[in-house]
Amino acid sequence: MIRNVARNVWQICGFPPSAVNAYPIEDVLIDAGIRWDRRMFFRALSGVSLRMVALTHVHPDHQGVAKAVCEKFKCALACHEADRAVMEGLEPMRPPTKPIRYASRLVAGPPRMVDWVLKEGDDVGGFRVIEAPGHTPGHVVFFREDDRLAIAGDLATNMNFITLRTGLHEPPGFFSVDPARNRESIRKLAALRPETLLFGHGPPLRDGDLWQRFAETRAR
Ligand SMILES: [Zn+2]
Ligand SMILES: [Zn+2]
User: Could you tell me the pTM of the whole model?
Assistant: First the structure.
């Protein structure tokens, strides 16, 4: 399923709805689901001329069909330098916890060479790259100034993974490399005053004040 969630931004959401998200923005696809999502992505993207797949971070539920989409659409792959070796299969997914190892085995896609390394301030489809490490070392947020829209990856989830209920949470500790650093990144994004936030997991959050409060209550 694909639906328009903001100007020039669509949400590809599988099942359960919004559990694992990816966002086509014009000719760039932000994130790429799990490896079993291939058909859904090809269908959702049919008729789109993609130039690039750009990843918020390299985790099994974000890079799953990255290689398949790059091959099918003959487009480039981008992620941050600090996650690049993982994407290219030179290092295992991080952190090296059991849940991450299981998820890698069950849902991760194959490695692929990274064509473009993202860094702070780069422009991707009209969005600015904001380095937001912690969940993984190379986690980034894509931020569009004019409507204060943030594609925030797994900086937080807007869904409880067990009950699937909507609500802001820090990602589970066993999925994050450095939770304290991730909290710094949550506050860094809050300083940009986003009004709408799109997450890797959960529905869009159209309440910037809620994000401010969430950031303020994250202990240092
Ligand atoms: Zn993640
Ligand atoms: Zn995720």
Answer: 0.97
The domain made up of 2-216 has a fold known as: Metallo-beta-lactamase; Chain A (3.60.15)
Residue 151 CA, ligand 1 centroid: distance in Å: 13
Give distance in angstroms: CA of 154 to centre of ligand 1. Answer: 5
**Centroid of ligand 1 to alpha carbon of 106 (angstroms):** 15
- Sequence ranges of the domains in the chain: 2-216
Write out pLDDT tens, residues 7-51: 999 999 877 888 999 999 989 999 999 999 999 999 999 989 999
Ligand with smallest separation from the Cα of 57? 1
The three-state secondary structure class of 40 is helix
pLDDT in tens, 110-165: 999 999 999 999 999 999 999 999 999 999 999 999 999 999 999 999 999 888 89
Q: How many CB atoms lie within 10 A of CB 7?
A: 11
Query: With contact defined as beta carbons under 8 Å apart, do 76 and 52 qualify?
Result: yes
Q: How far apart are CA 77 and CA 89, in angstroms?
A: 14
